[in-house]
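DM from R.C. (forwarded with permission)

"hey, sorry to bug you on a friday — could you get me a structure for this? deadline for the figure draft is monday and I only need the backbone to look sensible"
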Amino acid sequence: MNVHARYPTTPDEFVRWNENREGRREFVRGTVVEMMINTTIRHAVIASRLTAILLRQFPYPEFFVGSADVAVRTHAGIRYPDVFVDRGSPEHGDLGLVAEHPVLLAEVLSSSSVGRDFLEKAAEYTAIPSLRFYLVASQDEPRVWLWARDAQDAWQEPQETEGTEPVVSLSDLDATLPLAELYAGIEPRR
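My reply, with the result:
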């Protein structure tokens, strides 16, 4: 007898189905999508440093800062950004599996994720009403791209910042991202 596992058909089913499973996957336009699980050490270092920088500036429980273990709901389904900042909400507490009010989402680029991070995820993330910033960080050199809402709540073109001297401002959230700290010791790839 052949037994076929039933795949989820809705974002809510997916979140429950995906809980405690090994590997990394997302739910996009009704389909379970297997994601890269073999990240480089450099990718992990940048994501960890970004999380640490943000943890110092966003106090818990008013904010939740975390990594790719918590889902974000988009109009296309469920994504797991490399780093997130969620404005906490008492009605959901800290036992949920989905960031309820994300204000910042970040991805660390890999060679296989460029199109997805700059096109698909940028379109999905910037459609989230609570989101103020979307950040993409290169793992090959000190360079980030930041999408930000303006005073009229409209998304601006992404601002590219390179080098280790600049400090990127997350002004709406009264936070900064010092690139010297994010990229300390990381030599550009040639």
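R.C.: lifesaver. The mean pLDDT is 87.
me: no worries. Residues 38-182 form a domain with the tt1808, chain A fold (CATH 3.90.1570.10).
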